What does this fold into?
Amino acid sequence: MQKVWESTQFKEVYHVNPTHYEPGTPSLRIQSFCHSFSYKSWSGGSEIPRSSMIVSMLLDGKQKVTRLNGTETVESSGYLAILDLSAPGQKFETVSDSAERYFVLYETNPVLKTLLKEMFPAGLPSFYAVDTEKLKICFEAIRDELSRQDADDSRIGGYAYQLLHEAMVQFPEDPLPQPLVLAKNFINNHFRNVHLMTREEIAKAACVSISTLSNLFRKHLNTTIWQTICDKRMENVKQLLTYSNHSVEEIAHECGFTYAYYLAREFKKQFGITPLEYRKQSRLQ
It folds into this structure.
């Protein structure tokens, strides 16, 4: 069931769980998914007690967060947080022209609390994700299942676990510097676009100079900006070769290569075989 809340300051499109639920059932339970847009000067908070937890990821824009101790930070795209809405919360304000986010509301129950303690023993996390595309896929799987006429609570619970697990996988034990995370997010979101993927654009998204960003890639990741782009493109090329029937020309276009010839040349240089040979081998396994 879809609901839309809208005002001059925000628009929220909710997909509410339509399945029957008995409180106390020992399972992960999603209440709703929301695709939210807020506009400059919108403010809100998580201080209202509710029996739910929220997993939220900022897709675009910036928001200022004021915490209980009075400290303020500005968060950008790729920032993910898990919050307990029954606890004293934080206040948020949109400081860019607009901000876009996904969030999911979980029913608070013993299963969820136990799982979160095991996944995040140091406390509920908030961090810059290193691969926002994978997290978006997890969020959207929940949205799509809630939108089905035959929505199934066990499938929803499975997708609810996948989202938390992906957050756990990406949670950094040794956090990368924020400019590096912003650069990786930009690459993950734009690697398909040949014309936008320049070092200047990436450095601009990371709010640092090209030389500073290049040094960060070498120091923390032992690689270069261009190699990171190439690795991301090749990762997706291999997935499409294995799981789709798209031609090499189509895959080249989808993964940021101007021509199929360039893709085939770089693929053989890196893996020692042609894309079609890789497709054949991967499907025999």
User: Anything to note?
Assistant: The chain has two domains: 2-170, 178-284. The mean pLDDT is 87. Residues 53 and 113 are 10 Å apart (CA to CA).
